[in-house]
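For this section, I looked closely at a protein sequence along with its fold in token form, which I now present.
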Amino acid sequence: MFLLLTRVLLWLLIAVILYNLFKKVIPKEYFTLLGGLFLFGFIVVAFFSPDNDLVSTIWQVLSFPLKPVGASIVLLSFALRQGLDKSKNQVLAALLILLIASTPFFSNLLAATTEQTVVTPEAAGVQTASAIVVLGQGTTQPDEPPRTQIQLTDTGDRILYAAQLYRQSGNNPLVVVSAGPRPNLEGNQDQVVEANDIQTLLVELGVPQTRIVVEPTGTDLRTSAEAVEDILRDRGLADNRIFLVSSAYNSRRAQQTFTNVGLTNVVPKPTGFFTFQPGATPRVPLQIESFIPSVEALTVTTRIVEEFLASIYYYLRGWQAPTVV
């Protein structure tokens, strides 16, 4: 009852924020009751059909003002509309958002709040599992010209880590690769479905092809969790220990999502950390460069903010327990 009430209150808060935001952005002559009802209806449809390509695109637009770059652009747009002399506060706010979001020191602090909670001594000490699940969406680029080989993206270390876990386990676990079609490609399904390329790389890294199961439909954590649960349930492995390989910043949401679909013995195996554990050696000293804004730091901040928004969405859908990012 408490969780349901919390979700309802959070939905009401989001509705109020969206209403006020649209009321300011959309001219009054267009912001009619009929238009408001149409917009509300579209948001409801989008919420319950998140996999639709058009809906996903619109949601990207709606969430744009909630990200550092988007918030800065919106504030500057308001400032230009009202005149710079009358809107110095908006300009200052936009500058502060960009400055803080792109400063490595602050982006690392933000990332640490997510990453430092996903690795526990108990989980780190577990070396064997019946299955290794790799969340591979967005980890590779296909060998299409001008590329002459499959390339890894900045999250491609998930594939390398999965192969390492397989070699270290010693018990020949099943490796499930979950990655659906690449959203920016169309054509040959063998090339469009990313899981096929990941399977090729895993075989080259020493994982037997007979121990790899391709799950070609997962495009987000929820669809991957549902499909993987079916695969493991059919093989009688759903109640066994499962290693879940994902990036550190979204490992907590991934674990809770997989637990929510019925895989209760999931051990997160995060990789791709942005930060280092405090007090560990060797350590990263505080330098002048830590306070000089950079595109890399802005990227890290944006990913953490996107993960925070995704966690709110998953919580509202009842797909995970409440968390604080």
